[in-house]
Write a structure and sequence with these properties.
- The chain has about 100 residues and is an alpha+beta fold.
- About 40% of the residues lie in helices and about 25% in strands.
- The protein is built from 3 helices and 5 strands.
- The longest helix is centred in the first third of the chain and has 20 residues.
- The mean pLDDT is about 95.
């Protein structure tokens, strides 16, 4: 689902709000989450999951083409941990596609 699909679904589900109102609400929500994470905070949405920023330490890596050792610097990465309700709902509805 894309951001525009989310906005369309919310606008259809709540006709008392205009599409631009829903778009502003979604933009504000996402901007608030991003801002809080950028400051090093943690965001927890009950029933959905939690988002946090973790620091990956520097390490030595290998260039796959040449085999040369290269230094990979420290970096911040986003970590998502799904909540119990989300995990259970996905587990109930997920049906793997058969492989040929």
């Amino acid at each position: 689902m894309t951001r525009s699909e989310l906005i369309s679904r919310l606008a259809d589900k709540h006709p008392q709000f205009t599409t631009s109102d829903v778009e502003l609400a979604v933009k504000t929500l996402i901007d608030s989450i991003v801002s809080h994470l950028a400051q090093g905070g943690r965001v927890e949405l009950r029933g959905f999951g939690s988002l946090s920023v973790r620091t990956r330490p520097p390490r030595l890596g290998l260039n796959p083409r040449t085999g040369e050792k290269i230094h990979v610097p420290e970096k911040n990465v986003l970590n998502f941990r799904p909540g119990t309700e989300l995990r259970e709902r996905v587990k109930q509805r997920y049906v793997p596609k058969e492989t040929a």
